[in-house]
């Protein structure tokens, strides 16, 4: 349930090393950003790629060439194709192997083993496409333990006519998550909402995680409630997380993409991470 509206902090922009250093009245300091200002592939110092069929029975084959920076934005493009699946195994029961063909391609990039952060303000400005079957996301995963015991934060997730803000931790059943989820129907936004750029934000400290779109609070969960329910007493949100950006298609949640005209794009203006200037790991 949507609980309240938070007034945006005053932003001050200061040119720095060819980028934009952004301080806020909340005492945050920019510590990392990708403004996507260089044309070509995403900066390999910041981003790695997922490849092939990856998760959630999704329809897309992830590949590097579907993510490109141009005009100051990262563009992740989903395409309809008809290609042989190089991992096809006749009569296999494995969902990745039993598909004879690749019907869609897209891209998924992440900062794993390159940049990870514990606590802070995470911000993305982007435009998402909301046609049937599309499943874009801006999210984080913890660096230790298998999913979901590593912790997942979906700062932005969209599918089936709703915008979601989710947090998940582990349970006593391997690979089964406990979800803290809130969804906002797309029809509660203004007309043509998806044709414009919007700003998603996470404020994460040692007490809570709060998720926003355009300063509207979508979800807030206290960290004390996010300890893995497997007897370990491990809290996956008291460890560094890395960032992921992807455009999925279909699968367990995305819906049916068959009536959607392709290509479709997830356009990202920037991703920025801020932390408090004093003792960033302690606030």
Number of strands: 19
**Succession of helices and strands:** EEEEEEEEEEEEEEEEEEHE
CATH class: Mainly Beta
Q: Uncertain regions: pLDDT < 50 for 5+ in a row?
A: 1-21
GO biological process, one term: carbohydrate metabolic process
GO molecular function, one term: hydrolase activity, hydrolyzing O-glycosyl compounds
Domain GH16: 14-279
Protein name: Glycosyl hydrolases family 16
Any overview of this molecule?
The chain has 283 residues and is mainly beta. It has a single domain (28-276), classed as Jelly Rolls. Helices cover 1% and strands 47% of the residues. The chain is built from 1 helix and 19 strands. Strands 3, 5, 6, 7, 8, 10, 15, 16, 17 and 19 form a 10-stranded mixed sheet that branches. Strands 4-9-18-11-12-13-14 form a 7-stranded antiparallel sheet. The chain has a two-stranded antiparallel sheet with strand order 1-2. Strand 13 and strand 14 form a beta hairpin. The protein is globular and about 55 Å long. Mean pLDDT is 91; it is low at 1-21.
């Amino acid at each position: 349930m949507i609980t309240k509206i938070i007034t945006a902090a005053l932003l001050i922009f200061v040119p720095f090393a060819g980028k934009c250093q952004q301080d806020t009245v909340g005492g945050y300091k920019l510590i990392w950003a990708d403004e996507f200002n260089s044309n070509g592939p995403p900066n390999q110092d910041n981003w790695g790629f997922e490849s092939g069929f990856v998760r959630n029975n999704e329809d897309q084959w992830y590949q590097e060439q579907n993510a490109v920076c141009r005009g100051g934005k990262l563009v992740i493009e989903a395409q309809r194709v008809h290609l042989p699946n190089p991992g096809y195994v006749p009569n296999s029961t494995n969902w990745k192997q039993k598909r004879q063909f690749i019907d869609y391609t897209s891209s998924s990039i992440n900062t794993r083993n390159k940049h990870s952060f514990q606590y802070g303000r995470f911000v993305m400005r982007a435009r998402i496409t909301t046609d049937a079957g599309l499943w874009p996301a801006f999210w984080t995963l913890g660096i230790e333990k298998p999913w979901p015991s590593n912790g997942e934060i979906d700062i932005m997730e969209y599918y089936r006519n709703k915008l979601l803000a989710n947090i998940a931790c582990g349970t006593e059943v391997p690979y089964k998550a406990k979800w803290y989820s809130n969804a906002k129907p797309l029809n509660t936004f203004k007309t043509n909402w998806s044709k414009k750029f919007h700003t998603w934000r996470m404020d994460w400290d040692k007490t809570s995680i709060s998720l926003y779109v355009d300063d509207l609070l979508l979800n807030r969960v206290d960290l004390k409630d996010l300890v893995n329910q497997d007897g370990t007493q491990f809290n996956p949100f008291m460890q560094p997380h890395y960032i992921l950006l992807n455009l999925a298609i279909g699968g367990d949640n995305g819906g049916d993409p068959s009536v959607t005209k392709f290509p479709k794009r997830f356009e990202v203006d920037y991703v920025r991470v801020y932390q408090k200037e004093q003792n960033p790991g302690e606030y």
